[in-house]
Structure formats: structure tokens, C-alpha cells
Amino acid sequence: MFDELKLKRSMEKLQQGNDGAFEYIYDATHRLVYYQIYSILKSHQEAENIMQDVYIKVYKNIDKYTNDNPRAWIVAIARNEAINRYHKNKREVFMDEEELDLFIEKDEKTPLINLAVKILDEEEFLLVAYSILEDKSRREVAKILNLSPSGVTYKLNLALEKLKKEVA
Amino acid sequence: MKKLKQELKQEAKIFVPDIKLEVLESVGIRENAREKKKRSYARILVPVLAVFLLVLTIPLFFTEVNAKETLVTLNINPAFLIKVEDDKVQSVDALNDEAVLVLYDEELNDDLVETIKQLVAKAKDLGYKNKPTITAYNNNKKIENKMNKHLQEKLQNCEISFDEKISSKERLYQRQKREGLDLKNLKLEDVIKKDNDYNQQNLENLRAILNQYEQEISNLNYMEEANNLNGAINQFMLDMDQAINENNETEILRRFKNFNNNVMCFGNPQYNKDEIVAYYNENKEQIKNYMYFVEEETNNYMHNMRRQIVEYLQKENYEVVDLGEIVYLPEDVTEVLPPIEEYIDIDFNKAFIDQLIANISRRMRVVENRGHIFNHELFFIEEQYNILNNYLQEHETYLTDENVSLFLAEYELFINKYRR
Questions:
Q1: Could you say which of A28, A51, B94, B373 would form a disulfide bridge with B418 (CB–CB 3.0 to 4.6 Å)?
Q2: Residue range of the domain that includes A11
Q3: How many domains does chain A have?
């Protein structure tokens, strides 16, 4: 799995101009980033586009990374980008039929996650995504979402109960 | 629940797409995969065609390439591409963001040596201490050598190194293209301007703001203490629910007594199983809320503190780069602050006031339902009210807010009734 220390080192390397480190940063964070974007935009097509923008921003702004929590920093950029897109989304989005079919097909294969996105709020969904789907520890999730570990446990239980009730 | 988790994990495998190749391409780290594939087809064909074309176009090369045009690269970390023709500077392009900053507002003349000296001096002023490296390139080796020699002579007192080799003009242009530098469209605001002006006094002022808020946060010791006990509350509820489900009287009494004595005082109820269960069930929501509002309250203070710091920095003419919701502060300042992620799209004053009112009202309702107040509750409510009141004095416009005025009237009645 991807460890925190290696991620921090990769951020530093990228800051020093070692582009090779970027690949690891992407590998270690892209799943978290995708869940964050999807929880706001609820569209695979939009989420894929934004995910690309997020990493361009991460790459271009790597010099501005100063805190000690790379995952939270990247996820915050993702959230910001997704919210911006959400507000701009009034305009029409064109998609060719083939592409549309692909996304519909994908939706059909992930009914539970789609249900979770629908009935849970952003934070609850991310708790489920990070803790259950990505198997992150409570401590890691707490750090990314700026919660206390006990808060993660408590809120995660509530979210899962909610989901279970809906499935039943 | 286990089945649900397993099914979710199964779906997660296909839920997140991997667009690594596109991402790496878009930041210029990896070349386009399609082109790569195409090139493998063309691996044999291209050299053959190239030789053929070369034979045909050799005469064109000799006539079209301007032997007088020389390219000079200057690299101090900010990197420049200087185009020289007839010994005169035709253009100076930035090859990275740092160079844009150096070129900003800089008037350059057409003398190459003067231009280089000027750029090196400006970069030095901005804090770049690397030894500059210069390479001249010309298709005509004689001209290239002559130019390098000329620059070495003229710049010999400037501690400049001449050892970098650039293989071709095209490589430079490709790099410029890859880095996506469009000088006309690049906004200077996108680049953090390093401001060396902040001094000890500024940092001390910032520390004072920080301390003031930390003081206020720690003044809410009641809340902070409870915040630390979130885990205990959570555990207590799980244990109590289990004990009630199992109808385990000893456990119910033990858990409740322990919790009442050590965590959250419900007063001194009779330790009778049925009463405790009834009391617990009745107050369950309140216990849950207790966990949340403590966290929310502390977060509000943190947000407010960061907002004030940003305002202070802007007032002091710092460059605080605003990237959407995230605000980046100058490096030296961040050393004394926690990680900065400031959400600026919210009316913080209103949010803060509403939050305080919600917290106090929630507690007031519990007291009203019960019909009497405990000391710690009175302490909490008055403490919160004082914060609210001070805040409203500083932000008088919110006094006319309907929510605020209704609350103040309600609070007046409440406190007269319950204050001893």
C-alpha cells in the first residue's frame, strides 16, 4: 500500500523538480481524489475531467504545498475544483452516445456505491469511501477529513446504518 | 453489515478509473501514448523517409536557416531564452515561472551583455543565489564559438558558468511548449510572490492574533474537555445500548454511574435501572449532539482565527495568494501557524453567530424540558452568551438580524428564570 512517509518524500522531490515523483503522488491519491469529486458532481464523466484538472493544479502549484498533510492538501484542491465545476455546471454538457453508454454501464455495475452517493451527505460518503472502500485506518481518514478518530468511528457507523436500512 | 461492506469493496474495484497516462501527459511528464504507439509502427519507415527527405531538402536548409540568429540560454533557476540577431537582442522569453517573475516590469535594451547583467542582477535581488549558466547556440559552429568566447570575456567578472550544453534549438522550444508557458496568458497572480518585507514585528502581531484565539478556545475548557471525551461518550452509548439490549442490570447501573460521575453529569438521579434506562433513552439525542457541537464550536474558532490572520496579512500588503478556497500564506508565516486552508466564500460572522445561537438554544431547550438547570449548564450557557454578546458588539449590523433579535429576547427570559 501507499505509505504516508513516501508520499511526503515524493511531494518534496517534486518540489525539487524531480518529475518522476509525480507518478507516485498520483498512484497514492487518485482514488481518494475521485471519491471526493464524485461525491460533489455525481457524474463519472465530470469527475474524470476534473480529476485531470486537479493533478495539473497539483503539479503546477507544488511549490505552494507547505503543510504536512499531502493527502488532505490534494483532496482539498479536488473539492475546490469540483465545487467550482458544480457552480459552472448550469451550462449544457455534451456527450456522445458511445461515451454515455460506457458511463451508464459503469453505473449499473456499482449500484451500492451509487445508492451511497445518493442518500449520504458528502462527509458520510467520504467516510464510507475512505474507510470501507479504500480500507484506510480511522486515524488516516480523520487526518484527511479533519475529524477526530472517534468522530470517524461514530459518524461512519451512522452512515453505514443509514445505508443498511436503505438496502434492506 | 459484513456482507454490505464486502459488496461495497467489490464495486470499488471498478468504480474509480485510472487516468494516469492522460494526467502524466497533460503535465508533460510522459509523451502521448497514441503518438508513442504510432511511432512504433513508423520505426522502420521514418528513417527511410527522413534520409530521402534530407537529400531533397539539404539545399533548403542552407538557404533558410539564418546563421546570424543565435540563441542564448541563461539559467539561474529562472531560465531565459534570448534570441540574438546581428549582435542585437531580438527577444527574451521566460522558460519557467520564476523567469516570468524576473521579467515582470523589466525594461530591457538590445545589448546582449547588458541584458544578461540586468537579468542576473534582478534574479539576485529576488533571492536566487545559484551561479548563472550561459550557453550560446548557433547552427554555424564558428559563430557559436565566437559568441561564447565573446560572452565569456565580457562577463568574466560576473561569476557566470559557461559549461552547459544545449543540443538543439528545437529541444528548447519543445521544453517551452511542454511546460505550457504562454507568456501572454500567464497571470502573475498565479505565481507566489516572495515578499521579504515581513519582519519580527509582523510575526509577533500574528502570534498575538493566534494566542488570542488559542486563549479563547482554551477558555472554553468545559467544551474542550468534552471534546477530548468524545470517544468516551461514543463508547458509553455503545456499551449502554448493549447492556439495555441484554437487559443486564448490573452493567446498566455501572455504566451509567461511571459516565455520570466522570464524563457528563446528569445530576444525581436515583440509581434505579428502569429510571436510568428511561432517562438515558430520553436524553440520547442530547448526548449525541453533545459530541457534535463541541467539535463545531472549536472549528468555528479556528476558521475565524485564520480569517483574521489573512485579513491582517492583506492589510499589511502581504501577497496572500488566493487559489479559490485555499489561501496560501508566505512561508515564514506558516511556520507559526497550523496548516492553512481557509474557506473564504462564507459569511463567517453570520455562520459563527448562528452557530453560537444554535448551541445555546439547544442547551436551553434541554433545561426547559427538564425544568431545572445544573451549574455546569448555567456556566456553559453564560459563557457562550458572553462570546456571542462580545461578537455582536463588534459586528453591530447583525443585531438587526431576525434570528439574532428573537434569540436575544428568548435568552433574556430564560436567564431571568434560571439564574440563581
A1: B373
A2: 1-95
A3: 2
Beta bridge partners of B29: none
Size of interface A-B (CB pairs under 8 A): 126
What's the CA gap between B195 and B198, in Å, rounded? 7
The closest of B295, B299, B312, B300 to B209, measured between CA atoms, is B312
Interface test with B, best of A133, A139, A162 (most B CBs within 10 A): A133
- For residues B3 and A154, give the distance between their C-alpha atoms in angstroms, rounded to a whole number: 20
Tell me, yes or no, whether A68 and A137 share the same domain: no
In this prediction, residue B29 carries a pLDDT of 73
- The residue among A95, A130, A159 that closes a domain is A95
Show the CA angle centred on residue A25, arms to residues A23 and A26, nearest 5°. 65
Whether A81 is covered by a domain: the verdict is: yes
What pLDDT is recorded for position B290?
A: 59
CB contact under 8 A, A27 and B7: no
Nearest-Cα residue of chain A relative to residue B332: A66
Contact A52 B23 (CB under 8 A): yes
| Whole-number Å distance between alpha carbons of A81 and A75 | 10
CA distance B3 to chain A (A): 10
3-state secondary structure of A109: helix
Assign residue A44 the CATH number of its domain: 1.10.1740.10
In terms of domains, do A60 and A135 share one? no
Which among A51, A53, A66 is the top mutation candidate for probing chain B, defined by the most B β-carbons within 10 Å of its own β-carbon?
A: A66
Other C-beta atoms within 10 Å of B71: how many?
21
Q: Does residue A102 form part of some domain?
A: no
Grid cell 511526503 is found at: A8
Q: Would you call B192 and A63 a contact, using CB atoms and an 8 Å cutoff? A: yes
φ and ψ at residue B161, rounded to 5 degrees: -100, 145
pLDDT in tens, A14-48: 988 888 889 889 999 999 999 999 988 887 878 88
